[in-house]
Amino acid sequence: MRHTISVVVENNFGVLARVAGLFSGRGFNIDTLNVGPTHDPKFSRITATVMGDTQQLDQCIKQLKKLVEVIDVKDFSEGELAARELVIVKIAAEGNRSEIIQICDIFRAKIIDVSPLNLIVELTGDENKIEGFLEIIASYGIEDMARTGSAALPRIRKSNPRNEDKID
């Protein structure tokens, strides 16, 4: 089963290495990884996706929570979070430029660099959108690519004073 793990940590040297070490020590391969500061620069959010057994992952999460610099750990299921990825792709465009531009328009991808032989395109979206774009564009020739892991936030519903649901 695929898991998206969100770990809020103190923004200190070596914390990422300790968190990643716990995953690898438990036999989990990190499929995607995204790290960045939160709204408070003293803290960072690590978002990792891993495949694995839920019971083994629960043990790993318990160990993560014991690390001094770890503030919070959550394992999110599908639909419990808003997640996006970024991909930057260099596409061979000689002779196919207009077709590639049409595909970019359909996916709402942004062309960020143009040369006589290629286009560099950026696209943000969920994993399915990114995969769909890459599958279609592959036939034109992907020359290079950089892809982030998921950046994600929880979709937690809380009641407000008027008993209306809102998403934070």
UniProtKB/TrEMBL annotation:
<dbReference type="InterPro" id="IPR039557">
    <property type="entry name" value="AHAS_ACT"/>
</dbReference>
<keyword id="KW-0100">Branched-chain amino acid biosynthesis</keyword>
<protein>
    <recommendedName>
        <fullName>Acetolactate synthase small subunit</fullName>
        <ecNumber>2.2.1.6</ecNumber>
    </recommendedName>
</protein>
<dbReference type="GO" id="GO:1990610">
    <property type="term" value="F:acetolactate synthase regulator activity"/>
</dbReference>
<dbReference type="GO" id="GO:0009097">
    <property type="term" value="P:isoleucine biosynthetic process"/>
</dbReference>
<dbReference type="InterPro" id="IPR002912">
    <property type="entry name" value="ACT_dom"/>
</dbReference>
<comment type="pathway">
    <text>Amino-acid biosynthesis; L-valine biosynthesis; L-valine from pyruvate: step 1/4.</text>
</comment>
<comment type="subunit">
    <text>Dimer of large and small chains.</text>
</comment>
<dbReference type="InterPro" id="IPR054480">
    <property type="entry name" value="AHAS_small-like_ACT"/>
</dbReference>
<dbReference type="InterPro" id="IPR027271">
    <property type="entry name" value="Acetolactate_synth/TF_NikR_C"/>
</dbReference>
<dbReference type="GO" id="GO:0005829">
    <property type="term" value="C:cytosol"/>
</dbReference>
<dbReference type="Pfam" id="PF10369">
    <property type="entry name" value="ALS_ss_C"/>
</dbReference>
<dbReference type="GO" id="GO:0003984">
    <property type="term" value="F:acetolactate synthase activity"/>
</dbReference>
<comment type="similarity">
    <text>Belongs to the acetolactate synthase small subunit family.</text>
</comment>
<comment type="pathway">
    <text>Amino-acid biosynthesis; L-isoleucine biosynthesis; L-isoleucine from 2-oxobutanoate: step 1/4.</text>
</comment>
<dbReference type="InterPro" id="IPR019455">
    <property type="entry name" value="Acetolactate_synth_ssu_C"/>
</dbReference>
<dbReference type="InterPro" id="IPR045865">
    <property type="entry name" value="ACT-like_dom_sf"/>
</dbReference>
<dbReference type="Pfam" id="PF22629">
    <property type="entry name" value="ACT_AHAS_ss"/>
</dbReference>
<dbReference type="InterPro" id="IPR004789">
    <property type="entry name" value="Acetalactate_synth_ssu"/>
</dbReference>
<comment type="function">
    <text>Catalyzes the conversion of 2 pyruvate molecules into acetolactate in the first common step of the biosynthetic pathway of the branched-amino acids such as leucine, isoleucine, and valine.</text>
</comment>
<feature type="domain" description="ACT">
    <location>
        <begin position="4"/>
        <end position="78"/>
    </location>
</feature>
<keyword id="KW-0808">Transferase</keyword>
<dbReference type="GO" id="GO:0009099">
    <property type="term" value="P:L-valine biosynthetic process"/>
</dbReference>
<keyword id="KW-0028">Amino-acid biosynthesis</keyword>
